[in-house]
Design brief:
Blueprint: H1 2-29, H2 35-39, H3 46-64, H4 67-74, H5 79-83, H6 90-122, H7 124-145, H8 150-174, H9 180-200
Helix pairs in contact: 1-6, 3-8, 3-9, 6-7, 6-8, 6-9, 7-8, 8-9
């Protein structure tokens, strides 16, 4: 129970921090647009959400088939390993971490706040590419902290850059500008990966 509450609090703080960043950017640059629309927080076509889930599962399965990535996903310091002692709350912890602590906060920041501004400024191909590269580079720092091998770091940076680009494409080209399709992609990828690793560590 404690680990669940801790993860829930951490996820809430992280999401609120990103929302505060979004509010600050909106206040200084975009008040002509409602805040929720400014960040892409509105309904999306159901088909775009389904496409996101399918792509997220495919992405996760393809990466977890790489033995070194699988080892990293269940190794010391991984989300699954850190929650392995959570007992009956382990999967609730993994769900909160997958859907909110990482996927929602990252989608709001990279595809909502950063991506939408870059696309408005540079157009879709360039703006979406820049936000995807930034997203990949953030994972470079995280993976280096996890002491992953250089080859795995490069592979994961490329994979997360691709994920960022596809999420942006899905939002803007199929989701009518909503970030929810990207969240469905990112969240389902994380959820499958975390649960799969969590089952392996039970």
């Amino acid at each position: 129970m404690e680990i669940f509450i801790g993860t829930l609090v951490s996820a809430t703080v992280q999401c609120l921090a990103v929302l505060v960043i979004g509010l600050a950017v909106w206040f200084f640059t975009g008040r002509a647009t409602r805040f929720m629309r400014f960040c892409g927080l509105y309904r999306a076509p159901p088909t775009a959400l389904v496409i996101g889930v399918v792509l997220g599962f495919a992405y996760s399965v393809s990466l977890l088939m790489v033995p070194a990535i699988w080892a990293l996903s269940i190794g010391a310091g991984s989300v699954a390993a850190d929650t392995a002692g959570g007992g009956q709350w382990s999967f609730a912890v993994l769900a909160v971490a997958a859907l909110f602590q990482t996927a929602f906060s990252e989608e709001l920041l990279f595809r909502g706040i950063i991506g939408k501004r870059l696309i408005a400024w540079k157009g879709f191909p360039v703006g979406n590419s820049i936000q995807a590269i930034l997203f990949g580079l953030v994972h470079l720092a995280l993976l280096r902290l996890a002491s992953a091998s250089l080859g795995i770091v490069i592979l994961m940076v490329i994979a997360t850059t691709i994920l960022g680009f596809v999420a942006g494409w899905l939002n803007e080209r199929r989701g009518q500008g909503s970030i929810l399709p990207g969240w469905s992609l990112h969240g389902s990828a994380n959820l499958l990966a975390y649960f799969w690793a969590g089952f392996a560590l039970m």
